C-alpha cells in the first residue's frame, strides 16, 4: 500500500500516518519528493484497511499495490487448475490441457425439447449439458423457469444421454435442491455479487460456474470467486459472458482480453459464453472461434431444436447449419492451440 | 411493437409474421417502404413476446414501443405518490411535496457510535435514520456487519431518538427478521436484480427503498420496482446512487438526470445518495445541492461521529463543519423549489 | 511516481530500476515489503517518462502520483480565475463570483432566426450569445452550417443586441477567420483531443470555451486545456456537456460531479451545457437547476424561435414557457449560492 | 422511420405529423394501437430529418429504421472489398481472401531504429510497415513525433526494405505532405470525428486506414468512413483498436465482435490493432490469435528493437520471442480459416 500525501501536508500529518501504521504492527517508509511525500506501507494489508488512512488529515490518496484475492490467486498456486464435473465414474475436465464444449437450451421447457437439445449438443461434441430451470428475468411477467420440475427433467436427460448437467441457482434457499440434481452449479451474471448465494454454493459440495457480472471488473469477479473458495470450494470455473458498454450492436461486448488476464493472475479455469454476450445467432460461431483462439478452456452455447418457439433467448440459440459449423470449429481449432478434446479425457475411475 | 423486415425479405416472410401475430389475437399493419417493409403490431404485448419474432426468417429487428412496466408507471396513476415511513403515530413522508433528509452511519458498529451518529443526523435535520446491519462487501475478508445484533441496536436507537429506521437486507432469508426491527427495507445496488429478494421484500409489509443497480438502466430499475409492486407492495422509494462509467475521479458518476426521467414516467418517489456515488466527503455537499435542485424527494447521506475509525466507507462520512453545511443547504434550498420540510408533515394520527 | 515490482523480482532488477532513475538525476527510495518491493521516485517526472520503467524486467506496475497538468492546475495558482469575454468596453465575466447565462441557436440559419433567438436569449437574462456557423455533424449528409456567412450573421447580431458572441471552430484552418468575427472560440466535444486545433486556438488571442470530450476523463480534459494554455492562452472556460454511458434515456449523462472536481484541482472556470447532455427539452430546466446548485460558473443552452423548423438539434431547444422558467431559475437560484448576476458585473472600462 | 405518438396524443396531432410528412413527398402509414398510435414513414429519409418530427406536439419518440450510411454499406455493394496498398508494381492486398500483417514502431525516432524495426517486422511476415511521424499525445509535454523528418525516414526505410508505408496524419494541413511520402494515410482514434480531416484524406488519392474512435459506436465509425467515401475515396480499411469501458486491467477493451458486425453491414475490410487495445505486451499475441480467428482481414502491431528506450508506448511493443510467437501464429492460423498470406498475393503488374 502506498499513501500519497497532499502537496501541503505538514510533517505532523506525515508523522501521524506513520504512527497509525506502526500501531497495528506495520512498517512505513517515507519518501519526501519535491512536491509531495509518499509513504510505502509494509505488513499485513488487512490490518491497514481498518485504519481508514484516506480520512486522515493531509492524505490525498491511497493506492493498493497487491491483489486483494488470495485463494484463487496464482501467487501461491502457480499451476493452473482443472475442475472435474460429473458423477464419480464420468467426470469431464475443464482446464488448461483440454477444450470443453458445454451446450444446451437456455431454458428447460419440456422433457422432449430438453432431450432434443441435449442430443443436438452431444452431436456437436458437447460433453456437458447446460439448461436453465430457475431463470432470472428482467420482467416479472416473463417466463421464470420450471423450477424443481426443470431440475427433474435435466436429471432425466442426464440419464438418457450421459451428459453431466450444469444449471443456474438464483436463490440461496434453492442451493440444496439444485445441488441434489445437478453436477455443477451456475451463478449467473446478475448474482455475481449476491454474497449470500456465493457462500451457499461454496458449501454445497459441487463445482461452481461463476459468470462475470455484466458490469464487474475482473478484480471484482475474482473476489466473488474468493467468496466461494473461502467456504472451502476451489472447484470454480469462471465464465466471461460480455460486459456492458455503450455499443448497441451487440447485447453486451465480449471481453476476450479477460481470458488471458484471468489466466495470468488466477489458477482457475475460464470459459466463454458467446451466446449471451452477443445476443445474436450470427455472431456465436465467430465469437466461439475468437474464444478458443484467445485461450479459453471451454465455450458454452445455447442450442434449441426450434428457436422460433423457445421461451427464452430464442434469437441467440443455434440450430442446424450454425451448430454444425460450431462443431467443426471445436474439432479443428483447439488442436492448433495445443489442446485435447475433453471427451478424450473423461475420468472414468 | 414494430417489426422491421430486412431489405431482401420476401412477401412470404412478411405474410408469415402477420400470420403469427394474428394467431395470438393481435393486429399487424404492414407499411411497405422503398427499401424495407415495417409491420406495426397492435394488441397484448405480452403475448407477442412469446412469438420470438426476432428469430423469424426475414426479420431484421424488433422495436418495443411501450414501456414494459405497469404498476409503477404514471400511465394509469398520473399523480406522483408519497410513501410514509415509520410506526403508526410517527410516519415520515417521502414524496413530491416535501424534502426528506435520511442520515446515519454506513455500518452499525456499537450502540454508542450508532446513537452518536443518530444525534448528529437529527441535529442536521434528518427525519429518518439509516444504518447497516447486514453489509454486502466486495471482499469476504472485510467487515460484514453485526447482523441481528445490529438490528437490535438500530431499534434501540429509534427508541432513544424517535427516528424511524431504514436498513439494508441482503438475503431473502433475512427479510422477516429485518422487517421485524426496521421501518423501511433497503435493497442495495448489488441486489437490484436479485429477483427472489425483490419478491420477498414485496411481501414483507414494510416500505422499500430500492437503490439503482450501479450499472442498471432506468428501465431495468423500474422493472425491479415492478417486481416488488407485483407482490402487492407499492410503497417503493427509488434511490439514485451513481452509475459505473469510465471516469475515475469519483467512485461512480451520480446520474442526476435520472431524477426527472423517473418522475416523468413513474409515480414513485425518488431520492439521491451522494455519499456512495462520489465516495469522497468533499463532494457530498455540492452533490446534495444538485440533487435537491434537480427535484429529488430526499437525500440520504453517511454520517459518522469519528470517520477515522469507521469500519466501512469512512472516507465519505460527513462530520462537523460539512454536516452543518449540509444542514444549512437542506433548510434553505428546498423552499426555493417549493418543497416543505418533511419534519413539518410527520403523520401522527 | 511509484514503481511496484512483481513478487518474484530479483535484487538485480530492483537495482537496475534505481540505476536508471539516478541516471536521469532522480532519487529512488526502496521499500521492501513481505511480498513485494516498491520504489518511490523523487525528481523531475517528465524525465522519468522517457525511462519506460514499465518495460524493465521485474516491474509489475508504475503509478503516477502527481497531476500531469501544470499551467491550469491550482497548485501554483490557487485563486480561481475569471475569464472576461467581449470587446473592450463590454466584457462579460465567467468566474467564481458571478453566474453567467449563455444562450442562442444551435445553428445559425438566417439573420432573422439568429436575431430572434438572440432577443429570446437576452430577455431570459443571457449576457453572451452562442450560435454555430461551422457544425460538426455525424453524417456527411446533414446540414454542416453556413460557415463564414454564419460568422457574419453572428457579428451583425452582436451589433444589434450588444451580446458578445461565442462560436465553434472545427478546423485549425478556420481559426483566424473565426477569431476575427467572434469574441470567444468554442472547441467542441468531438475536437477536444484535436491537438492541432487546441494549439491554434491557443495562439488566436481570444478566450476559449473547451467542451469536455463526451468520453474524456476529467484529467484528459484538463490536459487538453493545458495544450491551449501552453500556447500562452490561459483564458479557457471548461464546459461539461455530458459523458457517454450505457443509459439510453438521455443522449449523454450529465456529470455534475465534474464541476466540483474540476474546481478542486484547476483554477479555470467551468460551466455546464444541459441541452446537449440531455438532448431533451424537458430536462433542460431541471439540469440547469442542478448545474447552478452544484456550483457551475455558468450555463449554456440552446434556444430557437421555432424549434419545429430548426436545422439542428430542434428537440432540445427551449422556447416560450420553458425559457421563462429557465430565466426565473437563473434569477432566483444563484443568489442563494452567493453568486451575483454577470450582467451586473460587465467590465465597461 | 417510425414515429411513436404519446398515449394521450390527439387525432389532430396525428394528422399534423402525416401532413408534414406528405408535404415533403413522403407517405405515412398510421397504425392505431390500444394504447398508442404509431406512424410508419416511407420515402426519402434525408428529407424527413429536416422535419424535426421529435419536436411536434404529441410525438413521444422517433425510431430510425434504415442504416444512415450508403457508400460504405453492403446494401448496394454486397461483395466485400479488397484495398490495395503500395506503389504501382508492389501493391499489398487487405481484403476477404488474404491475411495481412502490418508492423512497425509506434513512433519513428531515428533512421537506424526505424530500419531495425522494419527488418523485425519483415522477418515476422509483415508486408506493410507502420510508423508514426506525427504523434497525437495526451500531454503537450510528451514527444510529438519527428514530423516531416519522420516521413523522410519512413520513405527511406521503404526504399531499403520494399515495404509500403502506413502513417498517421493528425491535421488537415499536413495531408498533402503525408500523402507525398506514405502509401496509406492513417486517421487515428482521436481524430475519427475530425470531419475536416476525413474530407481532406478523402481527396488525397491514397488509401486510408480509419481507426475506430475509442468511444465511437460502430455506426458512428461507418459514418466517419462515409465522410471519406463521399469525397470519392472508397479505399478505406477500418481498424478496431479497443473501446473505452470500465475495466481497468487493459488500457481499452478490444471489441472483437465489431469485426463480424462490420463485415455484415459494410463491404470495407477491417483489421485489428491489439497493441493499442491492450497496452500490455503479454496480451498482444493472444489478442492477435482472437482477431485472426474472429475473421479480421489483418492485424497491426507495434514492434521496437529496444522497447526499453522507445519514445512512445514502449510497454506494448513486441520484440524477440513474443514477435517470433506472433509470426508463428500468423503463419498457422489464417489457413485454418481459409485465408492466404497477403505476401503471396502482392500485385506486381
From TrEMBL, chains A, B, C, D:
Residues 91-328 form the DAHP synthetase I/KDSA domain. The keyword Transferase applies. Keywords: Transferase. The keyword Transferase applies. Residues 1-66 form the DAHP synthase ferredoxin-like domain. Gene3D superfamilies: Aldolase class I, Phospho-2-dehydro-3-deoxyheptonate aldolase, domain 1. InterPro entries: Aldolase_TIM (IPR013785), Class-I_DAHP_synthase (IPR052899), DAHP1/KDSA (IPR006218), DAHP_snth_FXD (IPR041071), DAHP_syn_2 (IPR006268). It comes from the Bacteria. GO terms for molecular function: 3-deoxy-7-phosphoheptulonate synthase activity. It holds the Pfam family DAHP_synth_1. Its EC number is 2.5.1.54. NCBIfam families: DAHP_synth_Bsub, PRK08673.1, PRK12595.1. PANTHER family: PHOSPHO-2-DEHYDRO-3-DEOXYHEPTONATE ALDOLASE (PTHR43018), PROTEIN AROA(G) (PTHR43018:SF1). This is 3-deoxy-7-phosphoheptulonate synthase.
